[in-house]
Structures are given as structure tokens and as C-alpha cells.
Amino acid sequence: MRARPQRWKRWKRWMAGIVIAAVVLVGGYVGARHYAWPAFKAHRIRVMNRDAQAFLDSGDLSNALLIARKSLQSSTDNPGAWRVAAAAATARGSADALSYQDNLCRVEPTRENYYQLIRLALRFDVPNFALAAIQSVAPLVHHDPAYYRLAVQVYLRIGKLTTARYSLISLTQLDPGDLNARLELAGLDLAADPGHHDPSVRLRVRAMLAEPEYRHRALTMLLRDNIVGKVKDGTAELVQQLGKVDGLTVPDRLLMIEGEQLIGAADAAALLKQLQSDVASHPAQVAQVLDFLVRTGASASAPAWVASLPAETQKDETVQTGIAEILRRERAWPQLEKYLTGQRWVRREYLRQALLASAYRAQGRSAEFTQAWGLALLDAGGNLPKTLELLAKTQAWNWVNERYDVAWKLFLLVPLNDEVRSGLVRWERNQGNTANLNRIFTRVVQAGGADRATQNNLAYTDLLLDSNLLRAAQSAADLVKAEPHNPFFITTRALALYKQGRPVDALALLDTLTLAERSEPVRMLFRAVFLTKLGRVDQAAEVMNDVTLPGMLPEEKRLADGAMLEIARLDRLQGDRSRLRAFSRSGVQGAGRSGWLVLTSTATRTAATPDMQLADSLYETQEWAGLAELLRATQWQGADYLRFALIAYVDRQLGQIGASNDAWTQALAVANRDQAKVQNLRSMVTHWNWPAERLVTTNLVFERNPTDRLMLDELLHDYRAMRRTADLVRVLGLYIANTTDTTNEAVAHAYYSLLLDSNVARAHVVARNAFEAAPADMMRRMVYAFSLWKQGRAAEAVPLLANVPSGTVSGVVPVALLSAAIQAQVGDIAAARASLARFDRANALPEEISLADEITRLLASLTAPAKTPST
After folding, report:
1. Are the CB atoms for 390 and 361 separated by under 8 Å?
2. Which of 37, 65, 487, 753 sits CB 3.0–4.6 Å from 517 for a disulfide?
């Protein structure tokens, strides 16, 4: 009695142990997943960041950058690693510093981080990045002069002079003692008054002449102002004062020469010649003089001057670029091509190829242009400054498509730059390239800088392209949960529901929008698509009539096309049902006694759609035109093979044989060797008395069931009547491959193989075995004798003919022909001729006729008189 309680206690202890173990395991997993692993990961990142900083402090930039990158592989939300990477790349003078600093601003958007990003963008001559940073940091600054100093530099660099002026005004108000800002502001006002209408502007600049630190800049401003305004008064004095300044640069001397030219001074040419001599060994300064010659309209003298310079100067890529730009400006395309061909620029190969491409393009040589432009992009590679220079060239040369080639390269280098991304999105949207839009949004998300709008755009384009549908649906659901009233997010979520086969939910979600929001063209399109899917044709057609398609993406337009086709199909289906009812009431439909459906299987007739039934009625009444229109305007889903077969029949009734053959080929292709479908087709073509098509379908049926003796007999009869020996071999081979006994079919297969000289050895073995099994069978005896003859063993075959009565006939083997062959080979000419005379050529196969002709020639040669040698 106590055994049961003890077992019960043990069972309870065992279950309790299992529960405790499960709790421990689950708790351990949760703790490890959500606490232990994140803690370990964070500790590892801290250690790597500390080591990277130590390498940076010691000046080991390579290892600092290496460790920082490893840290970033663990987490991109890692400001310490981004900071070290940016600092190390900056110290190495690498433009990668810009990307690292940009990511640092993303994860740690502080004012100082943005300031450093602006400084780096100006240093590496990427002013558009600096502009984006200026706009991003603006909400973080409160009357900070440092912000306005950086903003002025950015706006001046990109040519936004009005915005720069407002920034300078703010700066001078915040810091009235900033003389540099006051001089910059006066300079902008000076440039804005070329007509010299405001004397106070020039007085403000002249006031700065009293400041030794700014005297030089003030003089150049005033002198340039006179040159631009072509004001000769006071120009000589300004030239003289500027000439007294210590440390004049080449631009200063060029400005003085331009001033001398303005007032017609006799020594202007001499000063220019002297300057050209002074800079001869300084390529960068030569390039400045070349720019001056172009600006003053004296570029024609530049090539001759450069030709007189030292060889090292002439080889400098800066100088060569200047000459190439002059030739391009003068549209001297053959000369430009000749100048650039046959050399390679070490630092500026991308620019040489781009200039060469411009020469090819101007001469209409598209293939060479494409090659040169491709090499330019290739050489620019992932170098940000080179890519930006190519972008500037495409803008200056008005190369639209090529500009976006470069824009794509630039985007891949810096995917988080708003200006680059938005420009590229506008271009691809205008081009209707949904796949490229998807690439853009994917890259931004991968870079970790995607806001909700970008995530929604990625999900939306994924859905349009039918790619990553699960990810897109989840993303759309999350976005709607985060912003339940955002119409764009709701639109994407509705499309996702529709793609998941939930049109009711999709329509209900879309209907939560306001009337104004629903009136947006794409949302109207989706509403029509959802209504169509639900079979609400009248409502769908009404909405679709108001949809404007221009401006939509190709996939959106395809949705519209599909909806319109479905609306038309449903409308037609309703009309078909009305016509069927009319046929039924008039007694035409009846039981389909002479329609085509009666030719098909019971299952096919039972599952016939209204379209199929209407086609049956039209077929029965021989309304060929109406039937043709119906067949071409509908689709029968799984029964489309029947539709194509009927199209073939109607075309043949209308005398369109070629179209009929094409439609029949499509019917066979759609049937796809399905046994039931092929049987239906076979029944139809049998009724239509189409022997060739019946033969094809019979073959297809036989291939699925090669032991069907009735099908075999039918095929053998047809192929024998058509004299197609190879097909006889094929079907017999298929039959005997699926049987085990030696049969007459195997003997017939051996005979036809011998006729075709195919598998002769195997045919001989089959013939011998069959003969030995039934030596009295005349067909087997003759096939065996024929196999011996094929091997040149006619003497062995002769005894086999002894027991074959004269006049013996076989349905497969021509006894007389085979006897003649054997007799001729052993030299029994009379017997051979007699046998050959009994051969029925009218019903023979082509190979048998060829054999008869061969025997005839052999007998003729045997009876021909021998030639006597001439003496």
C-alpha cells in the first residue's frame, strides 16, 4: 500500500527538478542574452577605444585607426571610436576623416563636433558637406561668433554671397572688434556696387588702410573694384601703393598688371613678361598666370609661352591641366586630343581622361567617349576630392547623365549627406528607376543614418519591387505604430497588407485617412486596386477614372494597368454570364452536343468557367469571329492550354495557318506534358481530324505510359505509313525499355536499328536470342539472317533462308529484299535477282529502298563483262 505514495513522491520530485532546471536554463539564457552579453560587449568596446586613444596619443596613427575600426565593427553607435578614427585620419591628411567626423556627428551631435566637421570639409574642399553641417548645427548655437565665422567661410566658398553678408552682419554685431569681419563685409558690399553708386562703401574699405594688418587686403579690394568697374581714376595710385607692400604674391602682381593694362601703362607688357620669367620654375604659379591669360583674353599666347618653359615645368600636371583647359575653352578639339593622348598623369589621370572624353564627345566619337569617361571614374575611385572635382566638371560642361554617374559615386562615399542624397533621389525619381531608389534608401539605412521617412521609403520601394516583403511589412507596421496618423506610413502599411493577401484590411486602413489625404493620386490608385481585388468593380472603376498616372513610378503604373485589366475582365465576365443566360433561354446551349467541351474529360467539363462555357456555345453555333475575340480577350488560368487550342482551331477555320500553328505550339507548351491536359488535346485534334497534331499528342501520352500497347500500335502504324524509320526505333526502344520479355517488338527494334546502322552489335544479340527462342518464326529468322549479313557473314545466313518458303511476307521485314541481299553477297546472282523482283518498293522504308538500289548496283557489277587490257 505504501509503494504508490512513494512512487508519487518520487514523480513529484522529478517534475519539480525539471521545472527548476527549465527555469534556470531560461533565466540563464535571458540573463546572458540581455545582460551578460551586452555588458561584455560594452566592456570590450571600452577597452578597444582606450587602446586606440593610447596609440593616437603616442603618434602611432596606423594602429590607432586599425583598433578604432575594429571597435566600430562591434558597434557603429560608438562615439569614442569615431572620434579616434577622425583624429587619426585628420593627422594623416586623409579625406576619410570627413566620413568619420560625419558619423561622429550622427552619434554625438554636439556643437564642437559639427564645427570640426565644417573645418574638415573646408580643408578637403568639400563645401557642400560644410553647408549641410552648418544647417544641422544651427539649432545648437546661440549667438556664438565662432559659428558665424565658419558660416561665412562656407557661404563664400560656395558662392552664396547674400547669405554670407547676413552672417557677417550678425558677426560684427556680436563682435564689433572683429576687423576681419568688418573688412569682409565691406568687400562684399564693394562687389555688390560695381557702378560705384555708394561712396560710403569705398570709404569703409579705405578706412582699413590705416590698419597695417589689413592694408594689403584693402588695397587689393580697391584695385580689383576699379578693374571690375573699369575705373581709371585712382588706379595708378593703387597700383603704386600695392607695389610698396612687402611679400607680394603672384596674384598681387597679376592684379597690378591688370591695373596697368586698364590705364594703358607702357610697362604692363614688360611686367607680365618679367613675371612669366620669374615663375618659369614654379608650376603652381605658372598655372596662376595661365588663368590670368585666359581671363584677360590672351590665352592664344599661352601654348607658345609654356613651350619655352623648362621641361620639368611643362611636365607638371597643374600646367598641363591649364593648357588643356585653354584648348578646351577655344574648342580646339583635335589639338586637345593630340595634347592629352600618349601620356599618363600620375596625380590627375582622372582629369586627363575627363578632358579627353570631352574632346571625343565634341567630335561625335561616342565609343571613345564612353571608354575615356569610364576610365576617369575608375581612376577617381573612392577618392572624395577627385570625385568632387569630376562632379564640378560635369556641372560646368552641362553633362547631365555623367553628372549623375559621379553623383552615385559620391553618394556611395558619403551616403548620409542630405544634399547629395536628395539630388540623387530627385534624379532617379524623374527617371522612374525604382530599383535605384531602393538602392539609395538601402545604403542610407545600412550606414545607420536613416530617419523614419527613409525607412518608409525603403519599405515602400521593397513592396513595389516585390523584394524583402517580410522585412518591408514589419518595417511598415512599426512605422505606423510609431506615427499612427502619418499618411505616408499608412499608405506603405496598406500596400504591405495587400501584398500579404489582405485587401480588406488594406482598404480599411486606407479609409482611415481624410478625404484630402485619400485624393493623392497614388492612394487613389491603391484604393482602386484594393476594391478591384475585392470584386467591387463599379467602385473601383469610378476611383480609377480619377487617377492621374503621369509622374508615377513604373511599378505603380503596372498596378494601374493590372487593375484596369481586371476591371475590364470582371465587366466582361458579367456580360458573358448574361450572354450564357441568353443562350440557355434560347435553347442553343443545350447539353453541348456539338460543342468542344464534350470532347474533354468529365473533370474539365465540370470545372468549366463561364468564359469556357460561352466559348463552347460560340463554337457550337460556329460564330468564329466572336469566338476569336473572346479567346484573345480572356485568360483561363489552369485551362489556358484549351484556349490556345481553340485559337488554333478558329485560326485554321479562318484560313490563318501560320497563326494556327503558333497557337497550337503554345497550347502544347502550356499543357506542359500534363497527362490529363494532353489527353484533352488529343481528343480534340482527333475530332478535328488533325493527324500531325494527333501524332504529337499520342507521343506525349505514350511517353508517360510507354507500356500502353494500343498507343504503341497506333504510333507504329502512323510512323510506318509516314516512312519514318528513326521514330519507329524511338517508340519501340521506349516500349522495350519498360518490358522484360524478348518479344516481337524487340526484334522489330533490332531490324530497324540494323537498317539505320545504329547499335548493330546489340541488335545482332537481340536477333540471335529471339531466333534461338523461336526458330520457326519467319520474322525472327530473317532479322537474325540480316544481322549476320550486316557483319559480312552471308554464308552463315544462307542456311537460314532454306526453310523460308518462296513468297513469304512479313508485316515488318521485307523477306524478298533481305534474301536478295544475302544471295547477292554469296554470288547467287540468279536467286538474288528473283528475290529482288519480288521486293515491294511502294510500301518500303527509305533505308530499304536504298538497300535495294545497292543490291541492284552490286548485281550489275557482278554481271558486267570484264575489260580486256589494251595493247
Report:
1. no
2. 487
Closest to 375 (Cα-Cα) out of 402, 410, 408: 402
| C-alpha cell, 656 | 490563318
Q: What percent of the chain has pLDDT above 70?
A: 91
Q: What is the pTM of this model?
A: 0.47
What are the DSSP E strand ranges found in 457-505?
none
| Whole-number Å distance between alpha carbons of 616 and 602 | 15
Cα angle: 505, vertex 511, 513; to 5 degrees: 125
Q: Are 534 and 502 in contact (CB under 8 A)?
A: no
Determine how many CB atoms are found less than 10 A away from the CB of residue 720. Answer: 17
Q: Summarize the confidence of residues 185-197 as an average pLDDT.
A: 81
- Please tell me the distance from the alpha carbon of residue 766 to that of residue 749, in angstroms, as a whole number: 9
Helices and strands (H and E) in the chain: how many: 50, 0
Residue keyed to cell 526484334: 747
pLDDT by residue (tens digit) across 413-451? 777 777 777 878 888 888 888 888 888 888 888 876 677
> Is residue 563 a contact partner of residue 540, using CB atoms and an 8 Å limit?
yes
Q: How far apart are CA 686 and CA 479, in angstroms?
A: 61
Show Cβ contacts of residue 47 under 8 Å, excluding neighbours closer than 6 positions. none
Locate 152 and state its grid cell.
561665412
DSSP 32: I
830 close to 852: Cβ distance less than 8 angstroms: no
Q: Measuring CA to CA, which residue among 427, 481, 429, 478 is closest to residue 455?
A: 478
Query: Residue 807 and residue 589: Cα distance in Å, rounded?
Result: 59
Stretch (H or E) spanning 253: helix 250-263
Between CA 124 and CA 673 the distance in angstroms is 67
Q: Residue 495: which of 523, 520, 537 has the closest Cα?
A: 523
- The Cα 517–Cα 488 span in angstroms is 9
**Alpha carbon distance 210, 219 (integer Å):** 11
> What is the spatial distance between Cα 697 and Cα 712, in angstroms, rounded to a whole number?
13
Terminal Cα distance for the chain, rounded: 135
- Report the run of H or E that residue 534 belongs to, with start and end: none
pLDDT at 87: 92
Region label for 655, one of left (φ > 0), alpha (ψ between -120 and 50) or beta (otherwise): left
Alpha carbons 713 and 731: distance in angstroms, whole number: 10
**SS3 assignment for 290-332:** HHHHHHCCCHHHHHHHHHCCCHHHHHCHHHHHHHHHHHHHCCC
Distance of CA 627 to the CA centre of its chain: 41
Distance CA 65, CA 208 (A): 47
Q: Which residue has the cell 486596386?
A: 529
pLDDT digits (tens, 9 = 90+) for 104-161: 888 888 889 888 888 988 888 777 778 888 888 888 787 888 888 888 888 888 778 8
